[in-house]
Specification:
elongated, 0% strand, 13 helices, 335 residues, mainly alpha
């Protein structure tokens, strides 16, 4: 493509589009039709220039022009409570449901890894001695020791806020770092399962595994599920870079990335609930069976939310992506 000739041939159309856009929203019927036609042609021109003869200054100008034209053609839309309701009842559970083939295996394998680490530590005294001195381990595992007092070491409200912040950061890192070919997500998962496995191993070696599970299960079921969902989604995002399927890599990554951002918001709410349980239920004076029942109920409620509401929304075509008017315009691709 001879760029100078191409610019000379189409500059009048770009100038006309710019002139129409500067007038604001006062268009006659014919001018509105002309605006749509010029927007579509300019988008095609931009695509051809980007693929055949990229020029930074011209590309920047046309990109801005196309963005302004798209805003004029599609209009602006304000978020409302209806958007919030739609997100919570359809988009978020649908996104979680559609990614279940990633996070369910992630949850199973991670749980098995934590159990294996716990068994290895619990049955090998030499491994325990490598973790800490015998006096330190006794202080951690004894009745009233560090494992038990951890959940009541701070006021419930501040502890719940701290837990929520830490877990939300871990979930967000899993979602964001998935774009780096999955490796950071696997490392974050391993560290979480290692910490859990150490607790299982040390408390089981002290004959107090039931106490440990009674402390972890009330909040841990929902908390770990949220982390597994985030990790599975991050892995899916990383795999999209490797195998984007029938879409272009850029389009596939954009679609999965937008859904991942929405899931980060939804999972923050889920982790907020688990943080409340960890701050107020886990250290409470309730019997162990009551605390575990609350944790199991919260977990079952979340799974029902995902598989019932999310499954229904996914079957209706909801992918968890933002609505069509809010997506970036997909430019035509040169043949």
């Amino acid at each position: 493509m001879d760029l100078d000739v191409y610019v000379t041939a189409h500059r009048a159309e770009w100038d006309r589009l710019d002139h129409l856009l500067r007038r604001g929203g006062q268009f006659t019927g014919a001018e509105a039709d002309e605006l749509v036609s010029l927007y579509q042609r300019t988008a095609t021109h931009l695509s051809l220039i980007q693929s055949s003869a990229p020029d930074p200054m011209l590309t920047a100008r046309l990109t801005q022009l196309v963005a302004r034209a798209r805003a004029a053609v599609t209009g602006t839309r304000r978020s409302s409570w209806r958007d919030v309701t739609g997100f919570l009842t359809a988009s978020f559970p649908a996104a979680v449901y559609r990614s279940r083939h990633w996070w369910v295996p992630t949850a199973v394998l991670s749980t098995l890894l934590a159990a294996l680490i716990g068994w290895w530590i619990g049955t090998h005294p030499e491994v325990q001695s490598a973790i800490g001195a015998p006096a330190e381990l006794r202080e951690m595992t004894r009745p009233g020791g560090q494992y038990e007092t951890y959940y009541s070491s701070h006021p419930a409200a501040s502890f719940a806020a701290q837990v929520w912040t830490n877990n939300a950061q871990a979930a967000a890192m899993c979602l964001v770092l998935g774009a780096f070919l999955c490796v950071p997500v696997l490392w974050i998962l391993f560290l979480n399962m290692l910490n859990l496995g150490v607790g299982i191993g040390l408390m089981s070696s002290a004959g107090r595994l039931d106490v440990f599970l009674g402390l972890v299960l009330p909040h841990g079921l929902l908390e770990l599920t949220a982390v597994f969902v985030a990790a599975g989604t991050g892995l899916r995002l990383g795999w999209t870079l490797i195998d984007p399927g029938p879409m272009t890599r850029r389009s596939a990554l954009a679609q999965q990335g937008r859904a991942a951002v929405g899931m980060a918001i939804g999972l923050a709410l889920v982790l907020f609930l688990s943080g409340l349980i960890e701050g107020f239920v886990t250290p409470s004076g309730l019997p162990t069976w009551a605390r575990i029942t609350i944790g199991v109920a919260a977990e079952l409620a979340f799974l029902a939310y995902v598989y019932v509401l999310g499954g229904r929304a996914a079957r209706a075509g909801d992918t968890g992506d933002v609505e069509e008017p809010d997506r970036s315009a997909a430019l035509p691709t040169a043949a």
